[in-house]
Amino acid sequence: MNSSNYLYDSVFGHTVDSKKSFLINKNGEMSYENFHQLVNKLANTLKFSGLKTGDRVAVQAEKSNVQIALYVATIKSGGVYLPLNTDYTVNELEYFINDSEASIVVIDSNNEDSIKKTIKDKSIKILTLNGNETGSLTSLSSKQDKVFDAVPRNSEDLAAILYTSGTTGRSKGAQLTHKNLLSNTKVLKDFWKFNENDVLLHMLPIYHTHGLFVACNLLAYVGGSMIFLPKFDTEQTLKWIKSANTMMGVPTFYTRLLNEDRFDKKSTEHMRLFISGSAPLLAETHVEFEKRTGKKIIERYGMTETNMNTSNPYDGPRIAGTVGLPLPGVELRISDNKGKEVNRGEIGIIELRGDNVFKGYWQMPEKTAESFREDGFFITGDMARIDENGYVIIVGRDKDLIITGGLNVYPKEVEDLIDEIDSVNESAVIAVPHSDFGEAVVSIVVRKKDSVNEQDIKDHLSERIAKFKQPKKIIFANNLPRNTMGKVQKSELRKKYQDLFNN
Ligand code: AMP
């Protein structure tokens, strides 16, 4: 019989100098000792509120020290953590709470009344947690004991369910096991050389795999510290970066920092590592960042369902425009839509297998079956090729692929060429219904200066790519719609421009 808690024991339960700071922010420093006392009080609160082993704890709250302790408390008390994007409306919350059959729901006090009205099942315990760490959760926990014995859980047990953003249809709950999370943490520690001296500048949301698992599990595992800020802000970055030596961000963090002259060699010379992921980092940003700071960002690629899959190396070449090499223990192949591996250099769909890959979608056996090959590889839906050095180059999502007059156009190829133009800031290439071609290539372009016009872009492209890949229409916009993780919302663009050709 295994009497340990697989994830908790390795990542959080090991000995660290108890006086050392784990979380740092404007309110002060929280030591590992105080953090663990808080975790235990919260774990006792969850038990007191009726949590049984395997129960889901759904949480929608502003980022705070208490929230990260609540995540650890859920794992320690044998529960399954279910973090929810703070942008979700009460209606959306109702779906997640019902679908996951959560037994405890932790929400901001502002939503308490509407959630209580919406949720029919009165056995669900509703607690509140506000951004300033007040609410019924903290007041109940202040009366609880600061000692708690971890509930046994094994490697295959669920640790968390994270709902994917789901641009079409119902959002799916990715089930992540204790093994999925621990294996990835161990791999990243070695690959990026994290250790107890690291201080991570943490400005990511903690309802997503990047800010929650990649960052928090890793820093706790090595016994490091985190400067734990509510969100990204250029001024705050400039202030706090002085005390950090590592940073994880989405590409927009880096592009915004580059807009600030004070972000330079001097302000970053002490930094050991900058990591980017969750959305494509423009090669141009990578190059400009190196020019400005003398440092090369490490770009990596991951997903809610799989944790981290590839990364540019720590010691070897960090190549702009690539997501690097498969991480140790991650099997990656590029396949056609039947699951047959394509030749090296050809474009296909990324398929993955390894301890990092999730257990399937919560209560969706058919969706789960459709998403895996018979030999256990997960079909990611990301299209990519592998270059001659083994580096993975992502060209877009399969659903973003454009088929125009029967020919395939990979949006990234066209976007990269448009982005090369000096006066262009960024672009998105999408498919728009067209009576003649089925789908037409359309490009939405954000300019740095008005000096570039449609004809300039057309001229630039006509020398470089086949006619069928060139946009039938170029639309200028002030910005591209992005979610909090910096991903361009192409489904929104497709919807907005669906009648462009008035079919
Ligand atoms: P999520 O599940 O929200 O983390 O989104 C995962 C998706 O983000 C992946 O399937 C990719 O499409 C995209 N993604 C993550 N990292 C990168 C990256 N470095 N470059 C390009 N796309 C990325």
Helix-strand blueprint:
Layout: H1 6-11, E1 21-25, E2 28-31, H2 32-48, E3 56-60, H3 65-76, E4 80-83, H4 90-100, E5 104-107, H5 112-118, E6 125-128, H6 136-141, E7 158-163, E8 173-177, H7 178-192, E9 199-202, H8 209-222, E10 225-228, H9 234-240, E11 246-249, H10 251-258, H11 265-268, E12 273-276, H12 283-293, E13 298-303, E14 307-311, E15 325-326, E16 331-335, E17 348-353, H13 365-371, E18 378-386, E19 392-397, E20 402-404, E21 407-409, H14 411-420, E22 424-434, E23 438-447, H15 454-462, E24 473-477, H16 490-496
The protein binds adenosine monophosphate.
Keywords:
alpha/beta, binds adenosine monophosphate, single chain, four-stranded parallel sheet
